[in-house]
Amino acid sequence: MGIILKNIKAVVPGPQKNIVKETSIYIEGDKIVAFDNEPQGFKADKVIDGKDHLAIPGLINAHTHSYMAFMRNVADDLSFMDWLFGTIDPIEQKMTDEDTYWGACLAIIEMMKSGTTCFNDMMMNIKQTTKAIKESGMRAVMCRGLVGSAEDDGGRIDQTYEEMEFCKDCDRITFKFGPHAPYTCTDDYFRRISDEAKKAGIGIHVHLSESLSEIDTIKKDYGCSPIELADKNGLFDVPCIAAHCVQIDEKDMDILAKKNVSVVSNPASNMKLGNGFAPVPEMLEKGINVCIGTDGAASNNSLNMFHEMSLMALIHKGTHKTPVCVGADEVFNMATINGAKALELGDVTGSLEVGKKADIAILDLKNPSLMPNNNLIAGLSYSANGSEVDTVIIDGKVTMENRKVLTLDEDLVYSKVNDIIKRMGLDTKVY
After folding, report:
1. How confident is the model at residue 428 (pLDDT cuts 50, 70, 90)?
2. Which of 13, 107, 119 is nearest to 56 (CA)?
3. Dist. CA 197–CA 203, nearest whole Å
């Protein structure tokens, strides 16, 4: 299918920073094939009028748990360990496979409506999640959550291989191993997972150094930091994405930089759970690839990347007491190309360039939040809230138009999610 985004403003890579230019974007099949001038022999099946609109590369949510979307607003104002083991884990034990599917559908609708076209998911049931991904048209990296020991992991590594086979028919879905965290995986299990990752030729996605209680536990049990533990057991010997990295010191950052580990900062979740602020400016100074995630809706309680971009651009200015700290262009890169690089998709998505997949979010500029239309890159972090996203294209297919999701039945998803929370008694909490 040929699509033209005609006479549209677009955020594209510039010589030093991203720039906004007025152009026409030509899409053929699943790729961007040209800007400005129509390629010879191009046939347009659809023309989208770009007047008063802005095209950006689809945002990349580099760390989330899509199945948790129905747990929104059910575990608030709790300490981290009480939140995880006292509330969330008991809910997860009650979940059915179908619950995972409807939770993923809800998450995908929310992400798509706020401009996300690709997400990195750590979940419990890949088959149900990938069913939702296939139907919705989303792009995703799947990571089966792994917990246990080298001797007993409940068959989860084997499940990962089975699910990789199950999804080989969809090139929008790729895989990583997903060891949950150093307090739910033994060190020998970390070693086994790193060996499996090398054998399979895929990377790793893990939670590290999220809370002070985690730091205390790992230092007591192993005599080192979670970052050092992961490094000693080979997690960084393959491409690795480390979520959170809030409680880290300079030694930890040096390890992350040396091993080319990508760090996903999740500002809202980290603040809400009282875990603190990741030292993002210091990581950037050391050359660490920093990207952005929302975490799950159980801890955020949103999957809106524009909200995370705003927080990322603001909180470090406050914590470091300087307004020239983590700028809007850096934040935009964290939400796009840096995320793509972390997911090993840098040649596929993350920027609007000829040859890359047509993963595009289109914003309506006739919104008060973006009016006047000056310095739109700054506006994406400081002004936009996600509701400006009008149309979404993923893999060259229009998945949302005029804010209507075309690939999933929103009303059905909302009804099913309400049924789930009633069955689990999650709708009875009164404040």
Report:
1. low
2. 13
3. 6
Each residue's pLDDT tens digit, 203-221? 999 999 999 999 999 999 9
pLDDT digits (tens, 9 = 90+) for 394-424: 999 999 999 999 999 999 999 999 999 898 8
What would the two tokens of residue 43 be? 């046939």
State the Cα angle at 391 between 389 and 392, rounded to 5°: 100
Residue type, 193: I
Beta bridge partners of 60: 118
Q: Which amino acid is residue 93, in one-letter code?
A: Q
Alpha helices in 114-186 (DSSP H): 126-136, 156-166
Q: Residue count of the chain, please give it.
A: 431
Is the per-residue pLDDT at 430 higher than 60? no
The whole-angstrom separation of Cα 369 and Cα 133 is 31
The tokens describing 298, both together, are 């159980």
Spatial separation of the C-alpha atoms in residues 319 and 173, rounded to whole Å:
37
CA 120 vs. chain centroid, Å, equals 5
Quick: pLDDT tens for 339-369.
999 999 999 999 999 999 999 999 999 999 9
Q: For 50-91, how does the pLDDT look when each residue is reduced to its tens digit (9 = 90+)?
A: 999 999 999 999 999 999 888 888 877 777 778 888 888 888
What digits encode the pLDDT tens for the residues 93-114?
888 889 999 999 999 999 999 9
Domain residue extents for the chain: 2-57+357-405, 59-342
| Spatial contact of 292 and 305, defined as CB atoms under 8 Å apart | yes
What's the CATH superfamily of 59-342?
Metal-dependent hydrolases (3.20.20.140)
232 C-beta neighbours (distance < 10 Å), count: 15
Rounded CA separation 293/269 (Å): 9
Q: Which superfamily is assigned to 2-57+357-405 in CATH?
A: Urease, subunit C, domain 1 (2.30.40.10)
Torsion sign (Cα): 102, 30, 363, 310: positive
| Sign, CA torsion 350/355/359/362 | positive
